[in-house]
Amino acid sequence: MKGLLFITHQNNQYDTLDSVRIALEGGCRQIQLRMKDAAKEAVALVGREAMALCKKVGAELYIDDHVDVCREVGAAGVHLGKLDMPPEQARTYLGKAYRIGGTANTFDDICRLAEKGVDYIGLGPFRFTETKKNLSPLLGLNGYRTILKRCQANGIRLPVLAIGGITPDDIPCLMETGISGIALSSVILQADDPVKKTREIVERMKMHESYY
User: Using N-to-C axis directions, what is the helix angle for 140-153 and 107-115, rounded to 10°?
Assistant: First the structure.
């Protein structure tokens, strides 16, 4: 996984499916369906509709937390937080056809996830974000530089996506740390023109593909 991952969000103007449509129209081709505190049935319902939207443009859909919903809707994979199903259990349930991502806040977290066979890492938070409860210590640029260097030194080649309070202006410096991509959410929906903002971010990411 590399480039831009859009994590679904909702606000006073847009619901979750609106956010999927916006990201896709803006050229994002990796969507994570995140519906914290929603019932599994609600996630599955929205997941099926989101999957249909993604298929139309050849985008990949990832389901946050719900391994069973991932398989039910035929998503590309699932993202697991620290309190979700263990990655090795998810792998047994899903098999090798699905990608499994894991949340990390430290280098030790990455080591544990690598041993459990995840396909990519969501590493953060970069800075403070209101979309995440129980926020871990902020990493900042130095944190990413240090952790990515340790990954390289220890032969860990997993794609690492930066997450947490990232803005478009952070992209150049973050990509230089060695990450594979970034995950964004509210910064897109808060824009005056969210589709245009997504398109600008996608283009900015392409400018830094040499860092992937």
Answer: 40
SS3 content of the chain, % helix, strand, coil (to 5): 45, 15, 40
On whether the pTM is more than 0.90, the answer is yes
Q: Which residue has the tokens 């900015």?
A: 204
HEC string of 170-192?
A: HHHHHHCCCCCEEEECHHHHCCC
At 31, phi and psi to the nearest 5?
-120, 130
What does the alpha-carbon distance between residue 212 and residue 207 come to, in Å, rounded to a whole number? Answer: 11
- Which SS3 state, helix, strand or coil, does residue 116 take? coil
Q: What CA–CA distances, in Å, run from 158 to 24, 83, 109, 197?
A: 25, 21, 13, 28
Which residues are 127's β-sheet partners? none
For residue range 11-24, what is the model confidence (pLDDT) as tens digits? 999 999 999 999 99
Residues with Cβ within 8 Å of residue 130, at least 6 apart in sequence: 186
For residue 45, which phi and psi values (nearest 5 degrees)? -60, -50
Reported CATH class of domain 3-211: alpha beta
Domain boundaries, given as residue ranges, for the chain? 3-211
Among 208, 180, 192, smallest CA distance to 5 is for 180
